[in-house]
Amino acid sequence: MRRISANYIFPVTKTPLKNGIIEVDDSGSVLNIIDTQGHLTESRNLEFYNGVIVPGFINAHCHLELSELKGKLNQGLTIPGFINLMISYKKNTDSEKAISVARLHDSLMKQNGIVAVADIVNNTLTIEIKKKSKIYYHNFIELIGLGSNANEIFNKNILLYSEFINSGLKASLIPHAPYSVSENLFELLVQFATENNSILSVHNQESESENEMFRTKKGKLVDLFTSLGIDLSGWKPSGKNSIDFLMENFPKENNILFVHNLYSTKKEIASIANEFLNSYFVICPLSNYFIESKYPDLDNFLPFSEKITIGTDSLASNNSLSILEEMKVLAKLGSTLSFETILKWGTINGARALKLEEKLGSIEIGKIPGLNLITDFDFTNMQIADKSNVRVLV
Ligand SMILES: [Zn+2]
Questions:
Q1: Structure pTM?
Q2: How far, in Å, from the CA of 204 to the mean position of ligand 1?
């Protein structure tokens, strides 16, 4: 058994404890949490650390298989330009190298204090890494296809899904985005998700051109698809924003992670929160800034703070896979936000979104949440600072 203490413990589901002590067994399971009322006395076998102790982080949006693209794409491309380059890079992916880079970033995520990841998947590249990883992965197999071959695409991805499931990994089938999946394919996905009560994830309103496509069938996304030779003759604009398509077609009961929501209005965010009982918003500020030169408007999300989660997105649009780095940006964007609030987004909310709250997301007796020490914490403002770092204790 280890007895661990620091200047503050943030259990997340309870108020912070000054000089609290956490007792954990060899498996990392929390045995006891002791409130010392701030009066820590020297005691046997006590490990004391300068900083604050928080549970392991949950990365609610990542594409581990794209790690090889780190540093390859320019900033500010906006989504149509970004997708265009991604397609050409994916064609050239050397899988030996791609696997070793992904493996490296799996271990770096672990070092960054991340214990679970909602990972978007298009192939088998990461299966062997995940089978051995200390991180829990929920694999969201992403379907893309605007053509008339919905059944063919669906069946091919069922095979990919089975490969993950048969490897002992958790998986779901999801649409990439409302603009990249035909109505027939969407229907097949929804049927499967409803039957299996799957957790869903979808890229939502990451660019303005997505809304433009649904409203007018014009704009940069439509131009991109046309230049790629994708036949849009059967695709009809709804005259409304892209989110309306999801509102009408997604199942209402499933856990759904709506990712980015960068161009969602305050009203649209409220509609998602109210219509979908188990909806979550995944905010990826560093990736959004990289691609769209824009940060999410936190005011839109704050009324639904319990639904906010944090993602890194892929290394194609980020310098690292670190929830702490995203939290630093959020602390600056929302200068009135407390550390406790941002910490919930990076821990328990993500755990709930992935149905992992029995084990992860907060420091509670019986859970195995992982324990992170945040060093160089700003105790004056009780907030993370630019120079804060994370060290995994358990
Ligand atoms: Zn993504």
A1: 0.97
A2: 10
